From TrEMBL:
Domain 6-hydroxymethylpterin diphosphokinase MptE-like: 7-158
Pfam family, one: MptE-like
Protein name: 6-hydroxymethylpterin diphosphokinase MptE-like domain-containing protein
Organism of provenance: Hyphococcus luteus
Cited InterPro entries: MptE-like
Length: 226
């Protein structure tokens, strides 16, 4: 039997109960936001948003990915391992383990995928991947007890020329599973509401706006960042 190495999902259960979590994704709408204003919350930096870690000093910070394509790039591997502050935990889909940097296993929670569509309230059993790394961040934040959970830069606007806030040396192909992503994020919002908690989005033009409560970033800062 293989000995468990690294953190356990149980280590994070209700760790940030009642604390606002800010899921920072890499959509272009993230560009004008002053991320230094979210310093008092929990910051979950998804995929390429890891580039923004130095722009905020959140009380708790995490790197999150479920994307094998993202981790397979040497540039991104450096961003998420050697260049990532040693005190920042990594939350990674278990399927990515074979291509991940071996030395990072001691600070990485590898989360088992239960399937594509759904929402897990028990991360110790696994999570539903929903064809977007944001879903791992959302379910992890729920498991940590965060409330509210506020999404920044979750635009899902793949039809525009600038799909991410940064220029990619080798652009990743665009997902063709937008309907799956939308359904899963909308379903996540329903789960939060059922549990008397809030999932919010600050992306005004995001395609998830009809399904998730929208709040301008400035309002979210005034209400939840102090």
């Amino acid at each position: 039997m293989t000995k468990h190495i690294g953190p356990s999902a149980k280590d994070f259960h209700n760790l940030h109960k009642g604390v606002a979590a800010w899921i920072v994704s890499s959509g272009p709408s993230i560009k004008p936001l002053d991320l230094s204003l979210i310093a008092n919350g929990v910051g979950l930096f998804v995929n390429g948003a890891v580039r923004l870690l130095n722009e905020t000093n959140c009380a708790s910070q995490y790197f999150v990915t479920s994307d094998e394509r993202f981790l397979s790039s040497p540039e991104n591997q450096a961003l998420t391992s050697a260049q990532l502050d040693k005190d920042i935990p990594r939350i990674v889909r278990d399927k990515c383990r074979p291509i991940d940097v071996y030395q990072e296993r001691l600070r990485t929670l590898y989360v088992y995928s239960l399937g594509r569509n759904g929402f897990s309230t028990d991360l110790a059993n696994g999570y539903f991947f929903g064809c977007t790394s944001t879903m791992l961040a959302v379910q992890f934040a729920f498991w940590c007890g965060c409330d509210p959970v506020i999404m920044l830069g979750t635009d899902l606007s793949y039809i525009f020329e600038n799909k991410r806030f940064y220029d990619e040396e080798k652009p990743q192909p665009v997902d063709k599973m937008l309907n799956v992503q939308l359904w899963n994020i909308a379903n996540a919002a329903r789960v939060f509401k059922k549990n008397s908690r809030r999932l919010l989005s600050c992306s005004e033009k995001s395609l998830i706006r009809p399904y998730v409560d929208y709040m301008p970033f400035e309002d979210a800062i005034k209400k939840y960042a102090n």
